[in-house]
Every structure is written in C-alpha cells, then in structure tokens.
Structure of Calcineurin-like phosphoesterase domain-containing protein:
Amino acid sequence: MYPGRRVVRLLRLLWAALLLYGELGIYYHRVGRCQWPDGAEAAGNGVARIAVVADPQIVDHYSYGQTGLLLRVVEFFTDIYMRKSYVVLQQLRRPEAAVFLGDLMDGGREWGDADWESEYQRYRSIFVNRRPNEMRVYEMAGNHDIGIGNTVVEPALARFLKRVGPTNQVFEAGGYQIALLDTLTLLSDDARVSNGSRQMVEWLAEQRQSKGAKPRILFTHVPLWRPDGTPCGPLRQSRRDALIDASGYQFRNELFENTTRHLLDAIQPDAVLSGDDHDTCTVVHTVPATGKRAPEYTIGAFGWASGTPVASYGLLTLHPGSEDGVQPPRFALRNCFLPYQLGIYMWYLGALAATLMAAAASGFQRPWSSFGQQFGQLRAAAEVDKARTRANDAAYLPLPATARAGWHAARLPFARHAVRIVVEVAALAVPLYAALLLFFYIV
C-alpha cells in the first residue's frame, strides 16, 4: 500500500456521501419534510390532495439564446432536476391529482409543428405520470405555450387543444368545484379566440346560483390584479416584495383590474391559484359584490433555471366537510421548496478544491519525509568523490551532476503522488455521478 492510500479512501468516502446526498438524498429530504397541510398524509374520507406545479417552462434555444453543445448540456441538467423532483413528489406525497399551471415549454408558441412535437415528447419524458390509476393530471396553457390576449398564436392554440387538452376545465374534488380558467384567451378581443373562456365564466356564474352549489377554487395562469405594492408575504425570494402590473410582448404580469373584478363577482372563488411570476406570492382579494375574502396563492416555478433561486411547488388539501353540514368544506395550501441546485454545484466545487488540496498536501509530505534519507545518500556519495579527487586539488569542485539530479528526483514523486490520488478518487466519483444522473431515466 503506498502512503497516500488512506487519503484516497477518505476522499472517496467524502465524494460518495456528497454525491449520494446531492443527487438523490436531498430530493427525498426536501420533499419529505414538506407534508400535506391539515395532516392529510393518508387519503380517505373524501379528502382530495392536489399537487400544484407552475411554469416548468422546459429550456430551449428561445430561453437564453444558447445553441449546440452548450444548449444540450443546459437542457440535460435542467430536465434531470425536474424529472427527479417530480418522481420523488409522486413517491412520497402520492397526490390524487396534479395541476400544471401553464408555461409547459419556453418557446412553445414559437415552434413549428415538427419541432414542437419533439419538445412536447421531451416534456412528457420529464413529467411521467407513474401512478396513472391513482393520479389524474390536468395541464393548463401559459403565455409561453399559446400567447396572450390579442396576440394569442392561433396555430399554437389549436395545437395545444389537439395534443395537450382543453384549456378550460372543471372538475370536482374534496367537496370543491375546481375551475381551470384560460385567462389568456379570455383577454382577446377576437370572439373566435375568447368565446370558450367567456362561456365558461358565464356557466360558472349560472352554476353558482343553483341549489347545492359547491365552493370553488379558481386556477389561472396569470395572477389577478391587486393594488400596486401589495406585499407578497415572507416566502417570496425576490428582492421585489410585490408583483408589478406590467405588460409587453406576449406577457402580462397581472390581469386587468376590470377583468379581475368581473371574475371575482362571477365565480366567487374561495381561493385562487396562479403561476406565471416564477416566485411565491400570497395576497387576499375581496369579492366586490359580497365582501367575501378570497386568498390568492401564486406558486413558484418548478425549475431551477427560471430566475428564482429555489424552485417550488404547492400542496393543496381539500376537505369535503361533514354530511350533516356541521363541518363546512375547507382547504389548506402549503408552499414547498425543492433543492437549491446552484448550492449543490457549489458543494461539489468545494469538495473538488478540498480534494486537490488534500492530494497536494499528501504528495508534499511524502518526498520531504524521505528527504533525510536522500540527503544522506547524496552526502555519502559526495564524500567518496571528494576522497578520490583530493590529490588533484578538487576538494572544492561543485556538487556532482548526479547530486543535482537528486534534487529534481525529489520533486517528481510529489507530482506523481498527488496526480495518482486525484485519479483514484475520480475513478469512483465520476462513474458514481454519471450513474446517479442516469438513475432517474431508468426507474
């Protein structure tokens, strides 16, 4: 066993533990510690548990202008993050439904049919429903999928309706009526585009008057309007503590004020869930006609390359209440946060620096620990040479070339020793890292 073997073992242990936690354990830790609100860990008694995913917005060349190999690398690492997160979410929380709040792709509205289909299959490979008999999936459209208002891209809308599903949906769960409203087309002045959404709002308004009408949860991609500067609460990560009512090419941060008031009056939701902003935000609206208060929860983006440091999702629990009406239906929502991916990469960089320093220290220690022996041998050789040349008055000649070469020989083992340690550590760490990355493409 060469002297640095113990260092190799310690470094291998460090890397194995770090990679297992950074690529696997941290996902189970973060998802595992964020449980269903209201203690609804076990299904039953009519309780519905819905996972809410906002803005996966899978990266493509419309995202950051990347092309070629760099784009493929970014796509791979952003995709695997969301894939792992979604797998673990299904395994640990076991929701009965998952609602995607739109912006499934980044450049969805821009793609031609062939490219869009390729990207859609990529999206499907990331968000696989591993419990199709137990979990239903509902996918809404976002402005990155179809556009918004008068700039809705009609071919993109038609493609979404054909390949993904309806942009307006209603279903019941846990004693509530869940309304997934396409507010993107609702903002269009073109009746051909907006009629479906307008008719749904009218139908919801009529249903509200019927006997036995259930309480409602409204889902919308774009958040509702609120007064400027309304604080978003303590879970927001942005330095800006409020949404800004701004708009531009194919985006609008909030619905119009009059649209918001109309929706609150017509639908009268108990709560609103929205996406689009990529960060968490909780505000409370007042229904103008009744004074009823309705909280709105904006869910942060599910991916780590969305501009918000830590990705997140929501867990929504719906309790139907008692049959005798003594206990009314109630809901609870919890914002949950996924691993901080850039932080994980910083751990790896720190471990790499520690590995290089440990290898260098071990290699530096080894040649100098044997330096006394080498110096003794050089001194003995010099004494013998001095005796042989004394008669020729060569006592003060420079140290022989063989002795000078010995100093260089003392340096070479240092480099070889350090490199050997790094290579042996990498022989374990690199294959383990690759295996952990690919693991979630196999399971």
